[in-house]
Amino acid sequence: xxxxxxxxxxxxxxxxxxxxxxxxxxxxxxxxxxxxxxxxxxxxxxxxxxxxxxxxxxxxxxxxxxxxxxxxxxxxxxxxxxxxxxxxxxxxxxxxxxxxxxxxxxxxxxxxxxxxxxxxxxxxxxxxxxxxxxxxxxxxxxxxxxxxxxxxxxxxxxxxxxxxxxxxxxxxxxxxxxxxxxxxxxxxxxxxxxxxxxxxxxxxxxxxxxxxxxxxxxxxxxxxxxxxxxxxxxxxxxxxxxxxxxxxxxxxxxxxxxxxxxxxxxxxxxxxxxxxxxxxxxxxxxxxxxxxxxxxxxxxxxxxxxxxxxxxxxxxxxxxxxxxxxxxxxxxxxxxxxxxxxxxxxxxxxxxx
Length: 353
Prior knowledge:
By secondary structure, this protein is an alpha+beta fold. The chain is built from four helices and 23 strands. It has helices at 12-38, 132-143, 156-168, 255-261, and strands at residues 55-57, 59-63, 67-75, 79-82, 89-91, 97-99, 103-107, 110-115, 183-185, 190-196, 209-213, 217-224, 235-239, 242-245, 251-252, 266-268, 276-285, 289-294, 300-303, 306-311, 314-324, 327-332, 340-342. Helix content is 17%, strand content 34%. Strands 3, 12, 13, 14, 15, 16 and 17 form a seven-stranded antiparallel sheet that branches. The protein has a six-stranded antiparallel sheet with strand order 2-18-22-21-20-19, with no helix packed on it. Strands 4-11-10-6 form a four-stranded antiparallel sheet, with no helix packed on it.
């Protein structure tokens, strides 16, 4: 049998055997990989899905039911301050304020004294005159600290008080009676003038109008900002930090509240022609409710605002009063405050008693 030499060709099976081994290993690895990909993956023991919860916590909260409202203010007509004398202005007021019992302006070097009488002065008054205007003069002199009678008559006591007021205002030769040419009627004890209509050294205005006082605030009507009917069931109103009881009709007449909040208003128009003064505020329950905060899914058999909660094996009637941060706020019919309520499959009753 001939002997093989190094240069002799190797047998055929010796050439393909190593390639077959490599191909087999590749196919085996590929099969294992595909098996891993298609085989169902089991989650770790601690990540396996658990049973759906059947109860949820219920927490007690205070509920004031705060709601946004808009106030629309009603103001009276503007009031002109009238001078009943003609002459050159020789002294100007220091500010846009006119005060009863003090000079408003100086004309011909004489002060025109402001008087806030409840009945506007419409005639000259002297000793012996009677009427509502005299009574109003006596009352204002007394309010200013002068000894004036509570009377409808212009008496010697009235004259003495009026003389003393003139001297306090710088009049060196006081008149014995009240002349319209020496006074300016004011609609309030201290009023803010929008602007003076005269200047130093000029004649008093031909129409007699020294300035105009904006009409005072008479009332404010309250409306829900979202357009819904106004809630007035035992609520308070807060505007700019001022809180007051909300009247049943939603019309605010309290002078202190109106004065304290008018400065927070803005001029608003809905048609571009007429404007009104409005402010934003909130209304809230004067006495907050004690409510339960529960998941919305805990409330079932809902009809309007009424529904049920299951506590233990009992259906408890509730009233839904609001919602907050993803929970429903309810009050229970029996006043109870359970700490756990049923949800999901834990709800096994169909209604409540």
